């Protein structure tokens, strides 16, 4: 039975090395992958007894009897969702991320992840990595890229897109929105990241700290909130366009509170959003390769010590902008 090294969370928050064993023969459309890079996401559950990592990229080493498209040597990636029922109305409509039987990171397949030497996943939930994207660049796109690309669906090139926060998600959202042809307005607490935001494709940059009123050249049609700390919504709603939408993308267990009348009078929607379904995930990778949208990364060795260093630095908010683990 093939065994491979994995790194699990534990109550102390310090990753521990372990071993996962899978059957000798691959069944169905299962694919055996050698991990070549893994992103480190802010949603890693480092205190849980489970294998960590869900931004994986690797090389196909073996395919099951029901595989149709992948072969040995192909480069593939995987993200937050690794399976669904395939039969419910959500799956049939291409929205399998809302399948009641979806297999999500942290809930299912706790014995494997991308903080590992290998993994076994269904071919149906693996994504070919296009030429033009390295493994290191592709890894953070499997979650961070899929999340921001999904939240930008349906916009027009004539729209103004606001990006709140220039971090692991925000710096990708700026690039995607700019390459889609939109006017991009970045809102951040200070001017510290202004130069980087403009270089990434932003057209305007607004520092919000101590501001009494915000001004933009055009009202914002869609606002992606990637900052960890929620803003003063009384400042934000006046610069939103009528019938615009706000997408909170950062993860929090706190309540989300808005001025009631500000939403009603302008018809502003607050839209929940999760990672992209498979067809959009694949489109995201192709779009990123075509337009050379790449994360700004720091690399760490895919070892217990390297994982700990990357996660500690991420917790302190000192990673610029995505951490990527690389096997030694």
Strand/helix succession: EEEEEEHEEEHEHEHEEHEHEHEHE
Q: State Rg.
A: 20 Å
What portion of the residues fall into strands of 2 or more residues? Answer: 25-35%
The profile of the biggest β sheet is: 7 strands, mixed
Low-confidence stretches: none
Structural class: alpha/beta
Q: What average pLDDT do the residues reach?
A: 96
Bulk shape: globular
Q: What is the β-strand count?
A: 17
Helix content: 10-25%
Distance between the termini: 24 Å
Short overview:
By secondary structure, this protein is α/β, with parallel strands linked by helices. It has helices at 89-92, 135-151, 170-179, 194-200, 233-236, 260-266, 278-291, 304-315; strands at 3-8, 16-21, 30-40, 55-63, 75-78, 81-83, 103-104, 118-122, 127-128, 160-164, 183-188, 204-207, 220-225, 240-248, 269-270, 297-301, 322-326.
List keywords for this structure.
single chain; 328 residues; alpha/beta; 7-stranded mixed beta sheet; 6-stranded parallel beta sheet
Topology:
Layout: E1 3-8, E2 16-21, E3 30-40, E4 55-63, E5 75-78, E6 81-83, H1 89-92, E7 103-104, E8 118-122, E9 127-128, H2 135-151, E10 160-164, H3 170-179, E11 183-188, H4 194-200, E12 204-207, E13 220-225, H5 233-236, E14 240-248, H6 260-266, E15 269-270, H7 278-291, E16 297-301, H8 304-315, E17 322-326
Parallel strand pairs: 10-11, 10-13, 11-12, 13-14, 14-15, 16-17
Antiparallel strand pairs: 1-2, 3-4, 3-8, 3-17, 4-5, 5-9, 6-7
């Amino acid at each position: 039975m093939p065994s491979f090294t994995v790194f699990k969370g534990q109550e102390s928050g310090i990753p521990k090395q372990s071993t996962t064993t899978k059957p000798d023969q691959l069944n169905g459309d299962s694919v055996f992958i050698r991990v070549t890079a893994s992103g480190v996401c802010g949603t890693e559950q480092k205190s849980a007894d489970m294998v960590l990592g869900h931004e994986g990229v690797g090389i196909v080493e073996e395919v099951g009897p029901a595989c149709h498209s992948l072969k040995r040597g192909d480069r593939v990636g995987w993200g937050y969702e690794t399976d669904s029922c395939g039969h419910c109305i959500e799956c049939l409509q291409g929205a399998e991320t809302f399948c009641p039987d979806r297999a999500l990171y942290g809930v299912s397949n706790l014995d494997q992840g991308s903080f590992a030497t290998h993994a076994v996943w269904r071919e149906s939930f693996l994504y070919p990595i296009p030429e033009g994207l390295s493994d290191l660049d592709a890894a953070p796109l499997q979650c961070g890229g899929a999340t921001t690309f999904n939240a930008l669906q349906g916009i027009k090139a004539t729209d103004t897109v606001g990006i709140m926060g220039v971090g692991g998600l925000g710096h990708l959202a700026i690039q995607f929105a700019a390459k889609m042809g939109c006017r991009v307005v970045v809102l951040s607490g200070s001017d510290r990241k202004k130069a980087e935001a403009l270089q990434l494709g932003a057209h305007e940059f607004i520092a919000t700290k101590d501001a009494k009123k915000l001004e933009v050249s055009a009202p914002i049609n869609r606002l992606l909130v990637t900052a960890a700390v929620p803003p003063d919504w009384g400042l934000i709603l006046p610069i939103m366009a009528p019938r615009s939408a706000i997408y909170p993308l950062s993860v929090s267990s706190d309540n989300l509170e808005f001025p009631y009348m500000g939403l009603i009078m302008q018809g502003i929607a607050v839209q929940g959003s999760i990672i992209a379904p498979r067809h959009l995930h694949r489109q995201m990778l192709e779009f990123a390769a075509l337009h050379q949208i790449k994360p700004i990364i720091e690399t760490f060795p895919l070892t217990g010590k390297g994982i700990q260093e990357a996660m500690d630095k991420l917790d302190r908010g000192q990673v610029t902008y995505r951490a990527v683990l690389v096997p030694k």
